[in-house]
Amino acid sequence: MLQAKKKTGLVFFPAFDWAISPTHPEREERLLYTQDQVFEEGLLDIDGIVEFKPDLVTINDVQRVHFCVPDPWAVMTESHFISAGGAKTIGMAVMDGKVERGFALVRPPGHHACRVVHGTRGFCNVNIEAIMIEYLRRAYGVERVAIVDTDCHHGDGTQDIYWHDPHTLFISMHQDGRTLYPGTGFVQEMGGPNAIGTTINIPLPPHTSDEGYLYATKEIVLPILADFKPQLIINSAGQDNHYSDPITNMNISAQGYAALTTLLQADIAVLEGGYAIEGALPYINTGIILAMAGLDYNRLREPDFDAERYRQSRDITEHIELLGEKVLKIWRQRELLAETARAKSYPDQRNRHIYYDQDGIHEQQNEMIRICDDCGGALRIESTAVRPKPILAVHIPVNACPACLDQGHQWYETADRNKFADIFLQDRTTDRYLSGAKK
Amino acid sequence: MIIGLDVGGTHTDVILLHGRQLVREVKIATDADNLFQTLLAGLGAVIEGIDPKSIRRAVLSTTLATNLVAQQKLPDVGMVVAGGPGIDPRHFRTNPFYYTVDGAQDHRGREIQALDEYQVQSIGKDLKRHGIRYAGVVSKFSVRNTAQEEKMAALLQPYVERVFMGHLFSGNLNFPRRIATTYLNCAVYPVHKMFFEAMQKALTQKGLTVPIRILRPDGGNMNIESSVNHPAQTILSGPSASVMGAISSAPAQGSCLVLDIGGTTTDMAVLIDKDPLLEPLGIEVSPYKTLIRALLTQSIGIGGDSSVRIRDGKLTIGPDRTGRAMAYGGSAPTPTDAFHVLGRGGSGDVSRSRTGLEPVAQALGLNLEQTAELIFTSACRTILEGAGKMIEAINSKPVYTVHELWEGSRIDPKHMLVLGGPAPQFAAQLQTMFDGKVEVVPNYQVANAIGCALARTTCEVTLFADTALGRATAPSEGFRQAIPPGFTLNNARDLTDELLRKKAILRGADPEDIETEILEESQFNMIRGFQTIGKNIRVRMQLKPGLISEDD
Ligand SMILES: [Zn+2]
Ligand SMILES: [Zn+2]
Asked: For B524, which residue in chain A has the nearest alpha carbon?
């Protein structure tokens, strides 16, 4: 009889009746063969693997993270409440000690969803990991969290949400942004002035295989995690690095994913992308579940796997070794780099353009952070997208210092109501969300 | 007239019905070591003095297969398993002669590794050498493509008397359960076949020529011929007899709890609009998890004869039974003694019950009546807690579509049906503790045997259609057909319905009384690139468990 070495929770929510559009990669069929494989392997019968039914997230859970414009109902469908809810369910099961670790095998994904949401970006509307994490912070008082995003695409949404948060370490390993959507995630992107170093990007060259991927995990990610000492490790477990994925150019195998899972020892994994729905996902997901549960996955292999064909070149190996040195150097010098960043003339300002590929929306953002030594800093965002008038969004972090708390409230109270289409305040010190549009 | 017979752990109930009228009931002791004699005696007693020609139907629920498993008396059989990529199939070993061979199929049923025929042949020789006469073969995803199992069976056939193929037992996915299910069928087969063929012969000698039917754990029945091909589908049929016995008393609408309170245990089940809920995958016969269709039932260790004790100063009831209640000559106090003391019925010796409860009362520092009250309410509370847990488990069963999750209805039964020996006493107490209506099933002492008598034939068919591969398969029917690209969900439904009706008649259903029902259906467009290459269609239909029509 098989017995999981680590008691592992699973939320499986394939949303068999939901698609972005009929032929979109994010369609009904996506987890069909994964379900077949998981069921046929009898994974849910294994002693120590427990399946949970996902809860729905509440509007409060969403507004604790996002500024949805004009409101959550406009940018979310039922399926988003469920997939974020699936992540939350797993998070709670782990925190409550019902299981030692857990995997939310849910769709739709969320790691491209930023703090301000006007529509769908890179198949994502709301950030399901961030919604879970911020719920766990609120409900269980968790402080230090690390997110390791192993989706093939840069987790730009998660990076945006945690850009100014020194208590959340965000590490993204992805295919180099010069060759893939969303075109960001370079080594120099290392966090805002109050949180320099807690954003880490590891852009890997196309055609990286298991060898390079596991090297980066062992030599870059694990040492940084060991330094940071998070209370919780979350894996944004995208599966589009697979050698057969139709929309990317990497060469990772199901064995590679399982080995990665074993190395990371994440408390919670949340499915992100992955679109080789027949040849990869069934095997990768089986591998991740087995690896999380501490079970043997030696015999797991894609039918068409050919180790020779997907061996990485010497160039790639060297490239990744150099990359590792660069990333670790930044990590070690993060305090010095913070000083340098703050010495710039406008360290508190950021102007950005964010594109919503699904909806064709162009968002223009001006972001202002209160430079602070005592907390993540009050954050003020002006954002213009669909409507001519901008919205104003003010975020006060969970453990805001009195000065940042005052600053946040002042921004919100004194804003010119005629200038903005909507005014929002996210006061995390009291877990309050205010919308001042109709005042 | 109709005979129903239900073998229980301690006694066997046999009844005779005329229409829906109970005309005779017999209770005899069960001899677990000689079930054959128990059955013959029971059937003999119930038709004594009655013209055997007037019997039109006889349905038996036996513990033959269950006992073989529980007492580990299963004979040696061979199991040959082709796993392919995934969990090492050696983890699913069921028995000593268990072999794994090379060969693999993927989730759509495409062969990804050819079967190693040589390996299978050498296993055949090995089995023959060890004098093993029955074998089971199972391959991963055989319900999507039966080819490898068929090939294995053909290769082994020359060496053994009979080979069982996994795909014939269920259309559901679950390789380890398919292995266990195939093993149990294979291992139960020889004893089962001998037993029922001999039984039918013995009955014929008594003039009872009507074909016997055997109850299944899903609350349906099948004729002997079908049972010989699926002998393990007779396992743990007992609880389903009781559930079927309660159905006619259940409300037409809404959910309803069924409690069968026996001597040692209480079996619980749920009816929704008079239909029993089924196990999602199949029954568990410790240590085997199977794909054997079964009603969803849960057993807890509280019954009329549960032992009442004081442990660490606290009152405990069950889960064991040391014998009958003291009122009936037993040696340890029980809930039955509690209601004797309370004067709530029971025909036993109240003074013996009082004597039995005395030390318990002293330990608790209560008087006898208070003690009896406490025992009885505790027993009922444990039952209600067990029921609550079961309902909670039903309500937290995962669903996989947005629609089901969003619309998700929870059940919250406000009706309870009680049967079994101490039903009236327990029902009266439960009524004071349950927020809803509690009713005792008519003929509560033999309602299980009545349920058995009136149960309809049940069966299930799963159909997979893959228009890109151009084929439809119903593995458990050994059915495979080429389909055109335009094959639709409607076509799939019609085809499944047709296969199900055919199967039902083979199993012994009355062709005039067949009601089919869709359990699950789904249809996915398969897109590769931006092209729709075909449809992946799945339909699962059943003959739902229920009672035969009045005029039958
Ligand atoms: Zn991705
Ligand atoms: Zn501050």
From this structure: A29
Q: Indicate the helix (H) or strand (E) that contains B16.
A: strand B11-18
Comparing CB atoms, the residue among B87, B289, B529 nearest residue A41 is B87
One-character DSSP codes across B175-240: HHHHHHHHHHHHHHHHHHHHHHHHHHHHHHHTT--SPEEEE-TTS-EEEHHHHHHSGGGGTT-HHH
CB contact under 8 A, A13 and B107: no
Residue A437 is predicted with a pLDDT of: 56
- Pairwise CB contact (< 8 Å): A45 & B85: no
Is-contact A287 A254, C-beta < 8 A? Answer: yes
Which residues neighbour A367 within 8 Å (Cβ) at sequence distance 6 or greater?
A349, A350, A351, A352, A379, A380, A381, A382
Q: At what angle do helices B117-129 and B147-156 cross, to 10 degrees?
A: 40
pLDDT tens readout for residues A282-318:
999 999 999 999 999 999 999 999 999 999 999 999 9
Instruction: Report the C-alpha gap between A129 and A142 in whole angstroms.
Output: 14
Cα–Cα distance between B314 and B370 in angstroms, integer?
15
Nearest CA in chain B to A46: B176
Domain residues for the domain of B82 are: 78-188
The bound ligand whose nearest atom lies closest to the alpha carbon of A273 is: 1
- B475: three-class secondary structure by DSSP: helix
DSSP of A124-140, one letter per residue? BSS-HHHHHHHHHHHHH
Identity of the amino acid at B201: K
| Same domain? B376 vs B424 | yes
* Minimum-distance CB partner of B524 among A32, A37, A40: A32
Shortest CA gap B352–chain A (Å): 46
Residues B175-184 pLDDT 10s: 999 999 999 9
- Same domain for B470 and B531, yes or no, is yes
pLDDT confidence of residue A408: 97
For domain A3-334, the CATH architecture is 3-Layer(aba) Sandwich (3.40)
The number of the ligand nearest the C-alpha atom of A182 reads: 1
DSSP for residue A425: E
Phi, psi of B99 (to 5 degrees): -125, 145
Q: Which residues of A are catalytic?
A: 112
Total structural domains within chain B: 4
Query: Which CATH number belongs to the domain containing residue B134 in this structure?
Result: 3.40.50
* Chain CA centroid to CA A438, Å: 33
Region of residue B8 (left: phi > 0; alpha: psi -120 to 50; beta: else): beta
Pairing of strands A232-237, A268-271: parallel
Which residues on B lie below 8 Å from A52 (Cβ)? 396, 398
Residues from chain A contacting residue B526 (CB–CB below 8 Å): 29
CATH of residue B408: 3.30.420.40
pLDDT band at B551 (very low <50, low <70, confident <90, very high): low
Cα-Cα-Cα-Cα torsion A400, A403, A406, A411, nearest 10 degrees, comes to -90
In a domain, B321, yes or no: yes
pLDDT at position B32, please? Answer: 85
> Is the CB of B174 less than 8 angstroms away from the CB of A18?
no
CB atoms inside a 10 Å sphere around CB A247: 14
From the candidates B527, B530, B536, B537, which should be mutated to test the interface with A, based on the most A CB atoms within 10 A? Answer: B527
Q: Which of A18, A295, A298 sits opposite B402 (nearest CB)?
A: A18
Domain boundary among B166, B188, B210: B188
Mark out chain B residues that contact chain A at CB-CB < 8 A. Answer: 83, 85-88, 91-92, 104, 106-108, 112-113, 140-141, 172-177, 287, 289, 396-403, 405-406, 522, 524-527, 529-530, 532, 536
- Name the pairing type of β-strands A349-356 and A361-369: antiparallel
At B520, is the pLDDT very low, low, confident or very high (cuts 50, 70, 90)? very high
The alpha carbon torsion through A360, A368, A396, A382 (nearest 10 deg) reads: -40
CB-nearest partner of B107 from A11, A40, A290: A40
